[in-house]
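Recall the central idea of this unit: under ordinary conditions, the amino acid sequence of a chain determines the structure it adopts. In this exercise we apply that idea directly, starting from the sequence alone.
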Amino acid sequence: MKNKLIEKCLFIGEAILTSYSQIFFTDNKILAVVMVIVSFIDWWTGLSGLIAVITAVALSEILGYSSVIIRKGLFSFNALLVGLGVGTYFSPGFDVLLLIIMGGAIAFFSTVFLMGLLTKCGLPFLSIPFLLAMWLLLLAFPSFTGITLNTEALYPSNMFFKLGGNALVVFVDGLANLFQDTGFDTYFLSLGAIFFQFNILAGVLIAIGLLIHSRINFLFSLVGFFVAFGVYSFLGMYTGSLNYTYYGFNFILSAIAIGGYFLIPSRQSFLWSLLLIPVLVITTIGSDRLFGMFELSVFSLPFNMVIIGVLYAFKIRYDQTRSPILTLVQQKNPETNAYLFDSQPAKKYAAFVSPIRLPFMGQWTVNQGHDGTYTHKEFFRFAWDFIIIDTFSEKEFSGEGLLPSDYFCFDKPVIAPAAGTIVAAVNTVDDNEIGITNVLQNWGNTVVIKHDDYLYSKLSHLKKGSVEVEVGDVVVEGQGIGKCGNSGRSPYPHLHFQLQSSSKIGDPTIFWPLSEYIVGDKMKLRFVQKGIPEEQDTISNISTSPILQAAFKWNPGDEFVLSMTTEDEKEIIFSIRNEIDIYNQSFLICSKTGAKLYYENNGKTFSALNYIGSKKSALFYFYRSFYKIILSEHSALSVETPFPVHHLYRFPLLTIQDFLVPFGMFLKGNYKLSYKETDQMFNPQQLEMESQITGRANHAFFLAQIAVHKNREINIRCESSKTSKINLKWENKLYQY
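Accordingly, the structure predicted from this sequence is:
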């Protein structure tokens, strides 16, 4: 009972703390502590904010909402802003205390409503709940006869004298004099205004917290503000007005949101953050004049209007592969977002989240690809025709090739390229004689499968009577749906394959990359994560190895022993557990250090998605060794992919790269895995591999000699540029003898 109470208190404490940092789109604890300190520069403002946060967290707990969302402070950061605002505007008193609680509740329920409404469109609710609650309270204020305005906030020197005496007053005045007339004085005041602290010390502390948390966010805060400062000057407006309106935080938050949070930090996101500032300036000026008629401040309204509008415009783009790229999964900071995105093997296809694989088994050849020579034009330009070619004769048929059955692809199985539902099926069209086409029944025997909203695959020219599915059937990836034939507009047997956005046979094609296939012949094979097979490519799906599949097949709750032995024979035992989170994401967690390795295993490949935590854990070496594994045993296969640079480099190189991320990546990381040929042709007892990680100028960071045994044991001998040689031994507790 006591332990549960402690856990609940820690949970609520974390939810309250992260409410502060969530205003800057993060749950970083260091930044949160800085924000708490800043809010309490004026004790009454800080206390008001804290009471409002507690109100929102309590309501979310009472209603039983998601602990993950509560912990991140998403239900309560708007209530915090309301509390800070009320504490700034109104003098201390029990009646104001009631106002704070009511304001926190209004912000909370507004958050719940807007979260449900905007999430359906994939849009954030930002600080709209704060605006609604704050405006309602200010409009109702004239009716509250017992509440007076807080004049203490107008005299920060008195506040600093109470906090730290004359010494603190002198220090703050020195800061003000140091940055006077440089523009930075207004920048710091604007930062402080985010937390309703209208003094330069608050802004300096927030800037330091931002810098510690994220160099990118700090950079964009400067860019957003000073571009706006320049626009004000260019338009002939008095830049000093930013001092007494404190609207500069709109430009700071907008630049951070677009440049480093909702978009992957890049040159394009940097450019967009620049372009939006003039729009935001006009929006701020116009809305200020409008709301002035009602004696209301616009607060963060310009920020909300522009950011939500721009994000919606990005989300409805037809081509999501074009920069800037929307951030699909938020990591701990923009730098991590950028580094993980940069390490993706097919980052230009990152927006194509639904994997579509090859619709056949074995090796086939692309006879006609996108924008093909014959029929893949205009509406049908994004299609493929596949045939089978004999490796030795380099022909697609045996004998004279006068009969459909002479062709190697004829009557071969055609499989579902992904899970889905059959929405169209034709099975009665006769197969043509060689050289003759059926233009009246152009597509011949065809199956159309719905995989997702607006994502369908169409497989055509199938053999008459071979279609094994009917409309309404649910199929899984790899399930047989028919056989390759020569029906429809097909002079010789081949398989026509395309992706389209609707269910009708004959609808136009759409551009969509294929996932996880192998290119090349038996002597040299190259793995493609996502790509567009080109004409004359010989391609195949992954043929899996039972040894590798068994070794990497883990269930939630499975426990492992990962022992690490150094050259001096010192052995350290790490207990590893396989778990799954609320988002259905699998990860390994080290009980000794708390480090987590997030991964994906789809039965054909094992991919490390992210590593979080101590690099002293043996799990980190495991992560480096198995960053990307194809669960195949083919010795001619090699895997090459970028590796996240923040797991290779340290200060000062990584810090410099942090600042330069929006302009380009000069640090590089490369991972390569090669498979060794086994001596045992039949029933091998182990498979051997070698993985290596290199950086700039092929600098060697890591090398691992790997042996994966049939009993699921894995042995790794590692060499790192920073440590001596170590040996790792991975054992599943379930299979330990």
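Residues 152 and 312 are 41 Å apart (CA to CA).
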